[in-house]
Amino acid sequence: MILIAVPFLAAAIGVAWWVDYTYEPKSDASKYSSKFSALEIYSCADNKYFTPQQCAEIAHNKGMFSAIRDLNRDGVQELWSVGVAKYKSGKYPYANVVIVSDLNTKEIKQVLTVDLNKPRFAVLFGKANELSLFFCMECGSYADIQWQNNQWALVWPEPYG
């Protein structure tokens, strides 16, 4: 019997920052929905939500926190914004949100939600008249935003959770 000793080399395996990212929403949510006690629309405009390095990585991957699209193809473009909200009550304390608003009047047309146990990262990816909500930048956890039955819906190509 021959025994061979092979040294074990442990490499530090890092977790992508968006996996553990959390931001506690604190801003007034009354204009978005009476279900929420607080809501934040993510942005890289200042260092409130993300570091400059995180924003550079998001931009490099072509991620967006807001986009202008005509996803129902009615000839009117809407402003799409992504963020996180805190529910006033219910089974889940948080939700990632996609806010659909009128580009000119800023009126909220619809709020799409993904219920969460803790506040998480979310970002939009898309082109032309397509848009998807992702929960990371290098994975398959996402929902396409589609026009169905006269409203926008998050459509999951695979089961989420």
Key features of this structure:
161 residues; mainly beta; five-stranded antiparallel beta sheet; four-stranded antiparallel beta sheet; 2 helices; 9 strands; disordered N terminus
SSE blueprint and pairings:
Blueprint: H1 17-20, E1 36-41, H2 52-60, E2 66-69, E3 78-87, E4 94-102, E5 108-116, E6 123-125, E7 132-134, E8 142-148, E9 151-155
Antiparallel strand pairs: 1-3, 2-3, 3-4, 4-5, 6-7, 7-8, 8-9
Distance between the termini: 48 Å
Secondary-structure element order, N to C = HEHEEEEEEEE
Largest sheet: 5 strands, antiparallel
Query: What sort of overall outline do the alpha carbons produce when their principal axes are compared?
Result: globular
Tell me the total number of β-strands: 9
Q: Which blocks of ≥5 consecutive residues have pLDDT under 50?
A: 1-12
Give the overall pLDDT as a whole number.
88
Description:
The chain is mostly beta strands. It has one domain. The protein is 8% helix and 35% strand. Strands 1, 2, 3, 4 and 5 form a five-stranded antiparallel beta sheet that branches. Strand 4 and strand 5 form a beta hairpin. The longest helix has 9 residues, at 52-60.
Please give a quick description of this structure:
The protein is mainly beta and 161 residues long. It has helices spanning 17-20, 52-60; strands at residues 36-41, 66-69, 78-87, 94-102, 108-116, 123-125, 132-134, 142-148, 151-155.
